[in-house]
Amino acid sequence: MIIWSKPRIVIMFILILVFASAGIETVIADQKGGWPLVLFATALTIIFIVSLSTAQPRTEVLLTQISQYPKPITLTGRRGRGLFLALASSMIALVYLFGLLSSPAFLGSVVLYTVLVVVFGAPALILAAATIKPNRLTIDAEGLTHKNIFQTRRWEWRDIQDFRAISAVTYGERIIKVKDKIGFDDRNAKKTARADRQKRRIGASTSFPNHFGLSDDELAYALNAWRRRAISDGDRY
What we know:
Elements lengths: L5 H23 L5 H19 L6 H9 L5 E4 L2 H24 L4 H26 L3 E4 L3 E5 L4 E5 L3 E6 L2 E4 L2 E4 L3 E6 L6 H10 L3 E4 L6 H21 L1
Helix pairs in contact: 1-2, 2-4, 3-7, 4-5
């Protein structure tokens, strides 16, 4: 997830105020289109709050998880975050659905509103499904498994190394600050153009989203600790 700069935060805050005030005034005046504006402002507010939220350090939880080795542990993604984003996306889809139903039946406007309903409605369904069945990260003595609603990926400790929090993504000359992403090097990663681009952008051959309640630095530290112990035990035997 992108970390918002101060100018973007100010712009977003102004947009929320503009849409909220316009919507409320329209509703009070009993004019058409007020509630869609209120819905849109509410959706922007939810996205704004979720984007600014950061996992707080949980040292005791981290130490407990590391001490569980070699007993497998499973980290489950936060449901609340996905639920709020699904709600926000569905609100925006409803706004455009209202526009589709109330606008004149011109082909251009019908196509535009239909596309926008799909663009925001599909992510809402995916996020809702992810809330019901959140991401899972299972860590054991042999490696780790990341599972989401689309796929399951498995890595062995000997094939991966150097877990780190991804704090920035590079696009040409542009550097964008990000959070909630863990990167690492996978020697079995396929050598493709897409993989090369990812390596240049984030400095790691493989990554997965961190929606597990621990901060990025804490999760990377825990994974590195598990890997060191697993490799050490493997060499011993």
